[in-house]
Every structure is written in C-alpha cells, then in structure tokens.
Write a structure and sequence with these properties.
- The chain is an alpha/beta fold and 391 residues long.
- The protein is built from 15 helices and 13 strands.
- It folds into two domains: 133 residues, Alpha-Beta Complex (Aspartate Aminotransferase, domain 1), CATH 3.90.1150; 239 residues, Type I PLP-dependent aspartate aminotransferase-like (Major domain) (Aspartate Aminotransferase, domain 2, 3-Layer(aba) Sandwich), CATH 3.40.640.
- Helix content is 41%, strand content 14%.
- Strand 3, helix 6 and strand 4 form a beta-alpha-beta unit.
- Helix 5 runs parallel beside helix 6.
- The protein is globular.
- It starts with 10 loop residues before the first helix and ends with a helix.
- The structure holds 4'-deoxy-4'-aminopyridoxal-5'-phosphate.
- The site of 4'-deoxy-4'-aminopyridoxal-5'-phosphate has 13 residues, from helix 5.
C-alpha cells in the first residue's frame, strides 16, 4: 500500500487555530480522576430552566402534525412577526418581518455562515480582540482575512475605530461588534453605534452587531440596539438569541435582522445549507417573545445576586474586577507574573475551580480570565469560598 501522505483536513480547515486549552482540560480530568470536586466557571450556559409557558407552547406545538413538516426557510411568519413586534416594543425600531428578519438555528449558526455569504477571498473582516471566537474563525473559513480590533480597558473595551489604518478599512467588508460583550461584559451606548455607522458609510463596511446578551443586564440598565443609531438599518444587521434571555441554549433559536440585502444574502446561502428551524421551536420562540416579562426578570434577578456574590468575593480576595452591568461574565485581570493560561492553571491547582483563559478570545485577552456565573448558587458560593483562599 502507498504511504498515506494526504492531509485529512482541508487547507481551509487547517487555518482554524488549534484548541488552546488541552493542557487545562487534561489537568482538570486528572484532578477529577483523583476524586477532587472541580467546579467549572468556564462556560456561559444558564443552569436555570426555560420558562414554563415556553415549554408548554412547545408541548402543544409538537402535538400538531403541521409542525412535523419542513419549515419555511426564512422562519415562520408568526415567529418573524413576533420578532418585529418585540423590536418595536423593546427598542422602538420598526422592522419588516418579511424582508428584514431571518430565523436562525441559534445566533452562532447565522454568525458563522455570514462571511460565506458576503466575503470575497482576501476581504478583511474587523474582529474584536478579545471577542467571541466564531467571528474570526468563520472569516478564515470563508477565505477572508480577520484583522483584530483591540478592546482596551481605557476605552471601556470599545474599539478605537480611528486606529484602523485607512488601507485596512478600505479592504474591510465586515465589522463585527458585540455589546453587551462576551468576554469583557462591557456595554455600549447609541452614540458609539452612531460613530460605527459613520465609519461603515465612509468605508462601505457591513456592520454585524451581536446583541445576544441584550436582556441580561442589571441594576435597571437596558442595553440598546445597534439599529437604534440613525442610519444603522442601511449599513448593518443585528443578531439576537433566545439562548440567554429565556435560558434556551439547547433549543437552538435566534435571528438576524436589519439591512434587507444582507439578510437576503444570508437567507440565500442558508437555503442551500439547512432547512430551517423546527416549527414547534419557532412557536415556542413566539410564546417567549410575546409572553410575560416576569420569567425573564426573575432569571436576571438570580444572575444579579450571583454577580454580587462573585464580585464581592473576588474583590475581598484582592482580584481586580469591574462590576458587570450586563452578561453573566466577570472579566478579571491576572496578577503580575502570570498570563491567562498559567493563571487559570494556578486557580485550578489551588482552588479546583475552572476559569477560562482570556487568550482564547484573542491575544489582547491574555491579561485576563473569564468567570461565568451560570452555575447553581450553592456551587458558586463554594467556588467563591475557594477563590478567596487562592494566592
Ligand atoms: N454570540 C455570543 C457573544 C455568545 O457568547 C454566544 C454563546 N456563547 C453566541 C453568540 C451563540 O449563541 P446561540 O448560538 O446559542 O444563539
């Protein structure tokens, strides 16, 4: 037999950066094998259940054979109309459910496919660093060129768009943004989004704003929509997810809305890739968007109490952390002498608590670790007690 010389992975797939935390995972498993009770604060996946009225809507929908057939590609008109009504109520932004709203199999799916729909080989996508890794990887998979937009604490983790060299901005086709932000928990206001619209107009860039955390905000704060900025509907789209707001990460439902041609391009691509979201899930999504606000408020109150517990505990322990106004993450600076991976290892060894090294979100993130508070209260309390003892 001929020796096997061919790479299994395509050149395109090989561009995807290797998994960075194999070592950390190995150490975690080793501790668990020894019987150590490891607490993970590494994933952002709400432990609280989906609201009852949403589960009930799903139960009813599943029993209706009409939901058992292929769904309409772009989403049911019921779901898209519920999205448009929710947008008007929540942000005062008017959307045409037919042309400006597209259902997604979770926002990750739609974010990952967008570069395929819009980029030509060599086109630049500006991606926040630190940022949700999908923006960068999806750009690479579409033969695009990701260019990092550093997010620094001095500017409240907003990018400085005047820092983007003109020749890079001219080659840019996409600008990814995400506020409230994963992983920094930073928030942005409409005046910043207005600046983004000016930049997008000047350089003919499509803005992709990921607003997955819009409803996870504390102390009465209400994060805005990018589409509230004047002119935003002509230059960009916004992604939303049912995952965080309604604790529905497993259901896989989100949407993109905004600039009609961008929505249409993604819809055209998706027609050739998938066959939409189970209609029963979309009916449940409608019930969520149209339903009472109390279940969301209750869940956010739980996250807020956990945030208070975690921030207070970390500060007592001497950690440098800001109090997040939104998301369920604390972005903590690592002490001198560590980078994000060595500090995460240190925390794991001393406290048996898993935190995420910031370098997973980009090089600029390497001075930080991310802690999530989507863990049950008693486990979070235990983790805080242990973290108080680290150092
Ligand atoms: N965007 C951001 C910033 C996220 O943190 C996540 C989930 N971690 C997603 C999108 C994807 O969410 P989903 O696919 O569940 O809608």
């Amino acid at each position: 037999m001929e020796p096997k010389t061919r790479q299994v992975e395509s050149a395109r797939l090989q561009r995807v950066p290797p998994y960075l935390f194999a070592d950390l995972d190995r150490r975690t498993e080793e501790l668990q094998r020894k019987g150590v009770d490891v607490i993970s604060l590494a994933v952002g996946d709400p432990d609280l259940p989906t609201p009852d009225h949403v589960v009930e809507a799903m139960r009813k929908a599943v029993e209706d054979p009409a939901t058992h057939r292929y769904p309409p590609y772009a989403g049911t008109s019921g779901f898209r109309t519920a999205v448009a009504e929710w947008y008007l109520r929540r942000f005062g932004v008017r959307l045409d459910p037919e042309r400006q709203v597209l259902a997604l199999i979770g926002s990750k799916e739609g974010l990952a496919h967008l570069p395929w729909a819009l980029l030509n080989p060599g086109d630049v996508a500006l991606v926040p660093d630190p940022g949700y890794p999908v923006y960068r990887v999806a750009t690479l998979l579409a033969d695009g060129v990701p260019r990092p937009l550093p997010l620094r604490p001095a500017l409240g983790f907003l990018p400085d768009l005047t820092e983007v060299p003109t020749e890079v901005a001219r080659r840019a086709r996409l600008l990814f943004l995400n506020y409230p932000n994963n992983p920094t928990a930073a928030t942005a206001e409409v005046d910043f989004f207005a600046e983004v619209v000016r930049f997008a107009r000047e350089f003919d860039v499509v803005v992709v704003h990921d607003n997955s955390y819009s409803e996870i905000a504390y102390d009465g704060y209400r994060p805005p929509s990018f589409l509230q900025a004047p002119g935003a509907l002509e230059v960009g789209v916004e992604y939303h997810s049912l995952s965080k707001t309604y604790c529905m990460t497993g259901w896989r439902l989100g949407w993109v809305c905004g600039q009609a041609e961008v929505v249409a391009a993604l819809a055209k691509l998706k027609t050739n890739l998938d066959s939409g979201v189970f209609v029963a899930v979309q009916r449940a999504g409608e019930a969520a968007l149209r339903g009472p606000d109390e279940p969301v408020r209750d869940r956010v109150a739980t996250f807020q109490a956990r945030r208070d517990l975690l921030v207070a505990g970390l500060r007592e322990a001497g950690w440098k952390v800001t109090n997040p106004r939104a998301t369920f993450y604390v972005w903590a600076e690592v002490p001198d002498g560590f980078d994000s991976v060595t500090f995460a290892q240190h925390v794991l060894d001393r406290a048996a608590v898993v935190v995420t090294p910031g370098v997973g979100y980009g090089e600029v993130g390497d001075r930080y670790v991310r802690l999530s508070f989507t863990t049950p209260d008693h486990r979070l309390r235990e983790a805080v007690d242990r973290l108080r003892r680290v150092r």
